[in-house]
Amino acid sequence: MKSHFCFPKTFLWGAATSAYQVEGNNHNQWSEWEKQNAAKLVKTINYDIPEARELDNYISGKACDHYDNYKTDFDLLDKMNMNAYRLSIEWSRIEPHEGEWDQKQIQYYKRYINELLNRNIEPVVTLFHFTLPVWLSDKGGFAKRSNLKYFERYVAKILTEIDPRVKYIITINEPEIYATMGYQVKIWPPAKGNLLQYLWVVNNLALAHNRASKIIHELRKDAFVSIAKNSCHIYAGNDSAYSKMNVKVLQYIQDYFVLNKVMGTCDYLGLNFYFSARFFGHKMKNPNKLVNDLGWDMQPANIQYVIERLYKRYNKPILITENGVADSKDQYRKWWIEQTLEGMQKAMKNGVNLIGYLHWSLIDNFEWVYGKWPCLGLAKVDYKSGRRSLRKSAIWFGQQIKRIRRYN
Ligand code: BGC
């Protein structure tokens, strides 16, 4: 059967993970915070799921033990005919103490990336995905502008060490989510602050990106740099001028506030898409016809509108760096991906230069404050035996990728 999808041959088809969520046995700001907060999380994270009531759920511990099993996990990429993989480097492994590089760990990531390159899988390397070394968190992390020099030094170190064939770099994952959760909503470490501090952290992260991008380009002329930007489709539920105005304001707060500061130093735009948010006036009221295991409203085809809006404004190639669904029974994932492909295809027909799609996640993993129970993986992970098994939807997705490639 000929696929009706038409994506370019060079399109990146892949999956994503982040170090702390999959590797296991990391020691950083999160692992310290978890120890002190797991008992509280059992009480406050309110999901009627047996695992959500277990203390152990909130401790990342050995996570998916991906650190020792990355080759097995890369086999999954091969099985799904994928040609790209987004990973992150765990800063606390590279620089466990201030100014001390751990050569063994640097060698590890070199082998890791080499393994991907040998399999013809394009690595998309994230430098900061929410976790800080303890020493840096003790110094105030990104809340102190004077600490940006540590990030710059780490970025320069990684870029001088990793394989020159690595082209796609993401400096910072979801700056506003990191700042919101840690400094405004205060349910992630360091769990302190206020609106002003939130704004200060966001500004520091934007500046950190701009400085990092400069460093990366000095070291690698052909590097392709971006942040990974969270964006949801914010839309008006009715025709009222108030709803429409509110949507514009929220789009500014959600997207343009940071993107206006960083897009000048981005070669492409990395985009993470999970949600839609429908507004009546200033009230958010989603249809919630279909919700995932975390209770998030599911309207995957809306990815089209986010891609189109941001492309129109910034005119840079777009790479979907995350997109997925918490769905332990695997009842929606195939539909979700299908709808997403439709949305992406329409955006491309409307002129968007979309260069790839990386599904979140390759394997079930440690979902931050929710812990281990939400299942966003293309592959299910049995945390006891360590066994991975591709879900039905993933097998279908892999076949689609093959078909789309063959026919375009
Ligand atoms: C983050 C991931 C996370 C995913 C699903 C994104 O905000 O970058 O680390 O697992 O969303 O919640």
Description:
It is a single chain. The chain is α/β, with parallel strands linked by helices and 408 residues long. Helices cover 43% and strands 16% of the residues. The protein has 13 helices and 13 strands. The strands form 3 sheets. It has an 8-stranded parallel beta barrel, surrounded by 6 helices. Helix 7 packs parallel to helix 9. The longest helix has 25 residues. The chain starts with 11 loop residues before the first strand and ends with a helix. The model has no long low-confidence stretch (mean pLDDT 97). Beta-D-glucopyranose (BGC) binds next to loops.
Outline the fold blueprint:
Layout: E1 12-16, H1 19-22, H2 29-44, H3 66-79, E2 84-88, H4 91-94, H5 103-118, E3 122-128, H6 134-138, H7 148-161, E4 168-173, H8 175-184, H9 195-219, E5 224-230, E6 233-236, H10 241-262, E7 269-273, E8 276-280, E9 283-284, H11 303-314, E10 318-323, H12 333-349, E11 354-360, E12 379-381, E13 388-390, H13 392-407
Parallel strand pairs: 1-2, 1-11, 2-3, 3-4, 4-5, 5-7, 6-8, 7-10, 10-11
Antiparallel strand pairs: 8-9, 12-13
Helix pairs in contact: 7-9, 8-9, 9-10, 11-12
The chain binds beta-D-glucopyranose (BGC).
